[in-house]
Amino acid sequence: xxxxxxxxxxxxxxxxxxxxxxxxxxxxxxxxxxxxxxxxxxxxxxxxxxxxxxxxxxxxxxxxxxxxxxxxxxxxxxxxxxxxxxxxxxxxxxxxxxxxxxxxxxxxxxxxxxxxxxxxxxxxxxxxxxxxxxxxxxxxxxxxxxxxxxxxxxxxxxxxxxxxxxxxxxxxxxxxxxxxxxxxxxxxxxxxxxxxxxxxxxxxxxxxxxxxxxxxxxxxxxxxxxxxxxxxxxxxxxxxxxxxxxxxxxxxxxxxxxxxxxxxxxxxxxxxxxxxxxxxxxxxxxxxxxxxxxxxxxxxxxxxxxxxxxxxxxxxxxxxxxxxxx
Length: 326
What we know:
The chain has helices spanning about 10-20, 45-55, 75-95, 135-155, 175-180, 185-190, 200-215, 235-240, 240-245, 250-260, 275-280, 285-295, 305-310; strands spanning about 1-5, 25-30, 40, 60, 100-105, 125, 160-165, 220-225, 270. It has a seven-stranded parallel sheet, with helices on both faces. Strands 6-9 form a two-stranded parallel sheet. Helices cover about 40% and strands about 15% of the residues. The mean pLDDT is about 95. Helix 2 packs parallel to helix 3. It is α/β, with parallel strands linked by helices and about 325 residues long. It contains 13 helices and nine strands. It has one domain: 3-Layer(aba) Sandwich (Rossmann fold). This is Nucleoside-diphosphate-sugar epimerase. It holds the Pfam family Epimerase.
């Protein structure tokens, strides 16, 4: 398959290009920054550049975006230009050039305020049926771009699948209170219970989406590590996460070894059932697996994530955290 990947110099983009080429696909990577995995350097805002890059492509994976870490450093107009207008340009060019599938990398941040129940309420059970309530321009523009994908499926017959990915970045947590209390590996292992996914599993979800897009037409899918919890656990997760986790996985021996602790409360659970069922996606990394890796003294997560490493979101470093918070 001939596949155009946007954002090919980025963390996910590089991982996609590497994996697709290893699977013998004909991949063309585009990005505003050069790299060994980017074939053409240019901006998606340049329609002529996009049309030339799109020529002959069967499919598009649109992973390029402004992220949550850019909210404090970029304007709202920047987000609209990059996340909405540039997505529209890609969709128009894909439809015009005859590409038959379009995979859009979105985010669970689109759910926004729906992820944080009021005090005293059970944890939120987050499925694709939950209505997004974006909290910032990032979530607002990603949901708008998702709706553009739905429009192009209805109006132009372009198969468009939206993957709402949980957090998978390797940087430290953006919350300074979390950084102050939890070792970085400890925090990330905890998150695999309810809100994190490994880079390799994000990539495999995109490959599954490429395969299934013509049959599915349009759909939104949550891409997160498989959680052990059920709806019956939601109230207990909010009150006492540690004892709720112990019902499913024994973690104390490993945590004691490293001086780690479980989060006292978990406020949401991402449910990936639809992605596993509809896409045939089989994520490999969950809380149990990364716990075993840590217990053996290994780095947690996939070799692919370690190969790509940290790329950061800005060309400069910040003193108070991996990036400024709005």
